[in-house]
Amino acid sequence: MIPSLKPLLLLTGLALVGLMGISGAQAAPKVMLGIDVLEARNFAPLKGLRVGLLTHGAGVNGRGVPTWKVLYDSPAVNLTALYGPEHGIDGKTKAEVYVPSTTHAETGLPVYSLYGPNRKPTPEMLQGIDILVVDLQDIGVRSYTYVSAMRLAMEACFEQGIPVMVLDRPNPLGGLKVDGPPLDKHLMSYVGSFRVPYVHGLTIGELAVMAKNIPGWMEVDEAVQKNGKLYIIPMRGWRREMLWPDTGLRWTPTSPAIPDLSAAVGYAMTGLGCQLGGFRHGYGEGYPFRLLNYRQKSPDQVAATLNSLALPGLRFQPMPEGRQPGAYVVVTDWDKLRPTEVSFQMMRLACDWSDSGNPFAEATSAQQRLYKIHVGSEAWWNEISTRGSRARVDKFVDEWTALAREFQKSSSRYWLYK
Description:
By secondary structure, this protein is of the alpha/beta class. The protein is built from 13 helices and 12 strands. It folds into 2 domains: 250 residues, Rossmann fold, CATH 3.40.50; 150 residues, Aspartate Aminotransferase, domain 1 (Alpha-Beta Complex), CATH 3.90.1150. Helices cover 30% and strands 12% of the residues. The radius of gyration is 22 Å and the shape is globular. It starts with 8 loop residues before the first strand and ends in a 7-residue tail after the last helix.
């Protein structure tokens, strides 16, 4: 073990070597991010090490300064390489678009793309670093790919004997909301690299802990997983019941489609429901993932039909104005809300409203594959593709709710914030 890392939260098994009594907490915001905690220690754990940083546009400290700049400007840190996930190091590239490796304009450092020919860092990419620091803002939803970038980076580093340090960040949806279908093993992919419910209720640091400690959660040799060194810099002041507004932190867009917190919440609710079937969710219309519309249906019709379902915690407001009218998804009670439920009702309605009767039954093999790896449930695919508008949404939602409770109970042993 690298001596300078001993004071950290060391996770090789479940041993927790405390990170207590750190001074320098800010009066505001209420939550001190992992990067802020590291900075308050004058980056002592990185002393004498060549540092690589996996980050993106939303990787900023509590003052909004990019983490790469915080590290690069500190005389205590030797930052030697940068790594960027999907959407690039600046978070501005659109989804599913190839990102080339490049040279960082502000620092002159190499930026190795992990969303190009290689999604897992190659040994050559890792040459010249002694530790990889990860600072990525997740949004608490399984199909958002930053956690996949982290996992593959962990695997590559562990195989090369390089420690990984994760600077923890809040789950914008809080640490108590767990919802949606679990992920079938054969449907694991880059949009589903962890077998968790669709809304998982964990921080990115907690997911890293689980990946490190649960057999089979990493695609590496068992000994490599066991012996790999993972260090977490926890937040200070974050509690599981906190939603993003409770943290006092400013929102920085995590990707072009998630410019604000409203879109992050909407992504959990409507993203799956627009994979297939004909619904659109308002991306590009000023209300990403919140404005539902369906061809040949008026905003009033869409809102009235969805409101008639009396989904807990939700109301749908017709918005007839704008470039693309639709029904805005209003959250009325977060505690009662089951975020993904509306998506599966949308799928059922799409079968009811479709001219063909069942757009899922007509999907190409490529469409089926993309749909399945996002939703994660072969059983649900069989249900919606064969029963169409008669699909038993309530039955599946009830089953998934029970499984989500079981997951939350089992995953609580890995929580960093009780």
